[in-house]
Known about the structure:
Largest sheet: 7 strands, mixed
Number of strands: 12
Order of helices and strands: HHEHEHEHEHEEEEEHHHEEHHEH
Distance between the termini: 21 Å
Bound molecules: pyridoxal-5'-phosphate
Mean pLDDT: 97
Radius of gyration: 21 Å
Low-confidence stretches: none
Helix content: 25-40%
Amino acid sequence: MQFIDLMEQQKRIREKIDANITAVLDHGKYILGPEVQELEEKLAEFAGVKHAMGCSSGTDALLLALMAHGVGPGDAVFTTPFTFIATAEVISLIGAVPVFVDADPATFNLDAKQLKNAVNALKTGSGDYPLPAVCGDTRLTPKGIIPVDMFGLPADYTAVESVAQENGLFVIEDGAQSFGGEYQGKKACSLADVGCTSFYPAKPLGCYGDGGMCFTDSDSLAGAIRSLTVHGQGGDKYDNVRIGINGRLDSIQAAVLLAKFEIFSEEINLRRQAADRYSEGIDDSAGVVTPFVPEGSASAWAQYSILAKDEKHRADIQAKLKGNGIPTVIYYPGALHLQPAFESLGYSEGAFPKCEELTARIFSLPMHPYITPDEQEEVVTVINAGV
Length: 387
Ligand SMILES: *Cc1c(COP(=O)(O)O)cnc(C)c1O
């Protein structure tokens, strides 16, 4: 059994992918060819936003969104420690300071209730919430918030937005895992000032290399991101109006994505059905917690992640599944505030207990649109048998 099977999908659309790549080889516009614009238009319409800007990866999408907001040294950006390193890495990369807010153990997303406490603690200099060490002697300016749509489930944007508005903060949606998800009638990547997604091959909509996209309704942010993607380009190629990066999406990757996008909605439905089968199949008596999806939300099911009782229970279940030929993966085994890369922030163990507990209990089961009910039955049977 495979954890993520990309081959089944390719078999379905191989001819279309070949034809789309061949078209790029024929016209030769490898950079910013017509495929990029066509993809941007289609995905903007799908997400329900005015502008979509292709870029080189999900990480660069986040970086570009921060750059477009003018974030730099002396600024603080709030995010969750329960995420992939890229979310917080880009904040440090442009010289700002990531300020972590613990995760909600039910949704695995940033806890909007604690966000308020963290913002207040930073603004007043009180010790009411664990803050980075640098906050002791430097006054940071709170600038923005990056909630993450963990495993495909959108964060609680209504609650996040109310804290953002009260404090004049921007919100960037890390929708790297959630393209195709929904929140209160709106699509993922349309839920903040800028939405960012990733086309890394294993994401719900993946290409055959690296790629990403920024989404926004704001004309000015869209203009800034587009310019930043091409070295801060102004009116013409050799007019440079700001410091940017080389962060474009390749025509060939856009060509692959156009072929995959044709079956994307169907694949999201298949993922939902697979998630439902797991949730219905796994018994309460198995002692694991299956994913919670709040009313009005829909996950893109990038991963189907469950909680064991504790670290040992998790190791035992994983070993038993492995013995039955069933692969599992731990996303994420380490909380970001305890990573050596963020040592200078001075966070200690226990700062974010919910996140730390998640890293000890969580693991993900095989999930992709083409997993069969029989395969899922095998997984469920092993889990329900207990350890
Ligand atoms: C995958 C991922 C990213 C980074 O995307 P890349 O395309 O690999 O750069 C950022 N944030 C989260 C939550 C991710 O899962």
